[in-house]
Design a protein that fits this description.
Enolase-like, domain 1, five-stranded antiparallel sheet, 33% helix
């Protein structure tokens, strides 16, 4: 299929003569003339560009807030895009252009000052309202920055809007989106969007130097900030097999294309702290498109998921053509920017084993802001114990080395020893031999070293003296 098909509001779009790596934001403003959506940071941080992506999932429509500034138009085949204009002109205002209840709530509660952020705020609340279910308003709005500091009235507007019943399901839209060739490979210039796992494997094997695109939360910045021209792109977001999440008897199997939002509940059930780390990863807009597989394949030393997966003993599954292999997640990272991924090979999935009975699993993210900030240090701890003695230990850190890495000497200092302050102090001292962190804009080397040591003490306090809980419950 040599074109891209999606709905913009209720209007079908068929694009054959367009750069598939044009961002959705540029398409909306420059091609479609829908200028309500704003450009702020152009890197998925401020939320002024937020729109709602609608896609069919398991026979129903799913409404998701996304950052249009880093989403490529080629990745939207088979979706519907809603902007702030569509809420008044189509859903449900009609000719009188009555405001949608979400928009009216912002008016009633004086939730708009300069107005620049307002369209994105409206669309974030609208996505939560339309999707239904329990909504944490702080999480819903964490990806929308208001430079006028109007957060209190915005929150009151969200509370008012979310009390309104959701709009009725749109059967006609579902039928239209389901008809958009979901079993065919889309290709436009050098942009390929296969629909099956076998087609994906064949394409990547044939184009080993291609950019493999998942959520575009990093690759999008190559275009918007670095002004790079991407010659060959292979998008894996249409491969249903890669979006699969299966809770089996031995662990959770997570496809490389599963978003953080899709995987969070399954992960948080056995690993509550891992779930909290995901909750603080980016924003709703980022988690709706970003993938755990993409985070691993990117190989960032400060990727939040990697230390948690390493501490949990997760394994990574790779594929090249028909050949498959698996390895422990920590073995995948070789050096800064270098992973054990051969030409033509791609990440197919992750297996996250369930924690052992009675084991302590804790993950602590240290950053300057609670929401939507990159970690200075992330420590993940997985300790098994019997009769007050540590029997197994898996400890991993992000931000402490050129790759996410286990603290092997710290583990050795704990295993076989009683769980007491003397043991912990000895293990804290071993941290300096495991890691030699660097100074950068997020933290100094000295700060990182001290924090990493103190996180081990925090774990000891939390597990041995529950009355001295160190975290803010429900924060």
């Amino acid at each position: 299929m040599a074109d891209i098909r999606f709905l913009l509001g209720s209007e079908p779009q068929v694009l054959a003569d367009i750069d598939p790596c044009m961002t959705l934001l540029d398409y909306l403003r420059l091609e479609a003339g829908l200028v309500g959506t704003k450009e702020g940071c152009n890197e998925g941080d401020c939320g002024a560009c937020t729109v709602v992506r609608v896609r069919p999932v398991d026979g129903a429509l799913r409404y998701e807030a996304i950052n249009s500034c880093i989403q490529f138009i080629g990745a939207l085949h088979g979706c519907q895009i809603l902007t702030v204009e569509h809420l008044t002109s189509e859903f449900p205002g009609g000719p009188d252009r009555a405001l949608h209840p979400v928009q009216q709530a912002l008016v009633d509660c004086h939730g708009s000052q300069c107005g620049f952020c307002t369209p994105g705020v409206v669309m974030s609340i609208y996505a939560a309202h339309r999707q239904g279910g329990d909504v944490n308003i702080d999480d819903c709005l964490a990806g929308n920055l208001c430079r006028c500091t109007g957060y209190a009235p915005i929150v009151r507007a969200a509370e008012q809007a979310l009390r309104e019943p959701p709009d009725v399901p749109d059967a006609a839209t579902l039928q239209t989106l389901q008809s958009y060739g979901h079993d065919e490979t889309v290709f436009l210039g050098g942009f390929h969007a296969p629909a099956t796992l076998d087609d994906l494997a064949a394409l990547i094997e044939a184009h080993p130097d291609a950019v493999i695109l998942a959520g575009a939360t990093d690759v999008g910045l190559w275009v918007t900030k670095q002004m790079r021209r991407l010659e060959t792109v292979i998008y894996l977001g249409r491969v249903a097999e890669l979006a699969r999440i299966h809770e089996g008897p031995d662990g959770i199997e997570i496809g490389a294309g599963a978003s953080y939002s899709d995987a969070m509940a399954a992960i948080a059930a056995p690993y509550p702290d891992f779930g909290e780390v995901i909750r603080r990863l980016g924003s709703v807009q980022i988690r709706n498109v970003g993938t755990i597989g993409g985070n691993l394949a990117n190989g960032s030393p400060i990727g939040d998921a990697s230390p948690c997966l390493i501490a949990a003993g997760a394994s990574l599954h790779l594929r090249c053509g028909p050949a498959r292999r698996s390895l422990a997640v920590e073995e995948f990272f070789i050096d800064y920017g270098k992973q054990d991924r051969r030409p033509g090979e791609f990440v197919e999935g992750i297996t996250l084993p369930y924690p052992k009975d009675g084991a302590w699993f804790r993950a602590y993210k240290i950053s300057k802001r609670f929401d939507q900030d990159i970690s200075a240090v992330l420590g993940a701890f997985n300790l098994s114990h019997e009769n007050g003695v540590i029997t197994e230990a898996r400890i991993a850190f992000g931000g402490m080395a050129a790759t996410p890495r286990r603290a092997r000497l710290v583990e050795a200092a704990l295993i076989g020893e009683p769980w007491n302050e003397t043991t912990v102090a000895r293990a804290m001292a071993a941290m300096a031999e495991d890691f030699a962190p660097i100074d950068d804009l997020r933290a100094s080397a000295a700060y990182r070293s001290r924090v990493a040591q103190n996180l081990l003490m925090r774990l000891y306090i939390e597990t041995s003296e529950p009355a001295q809980e160190t975290r803010l419950v429900g924060a």
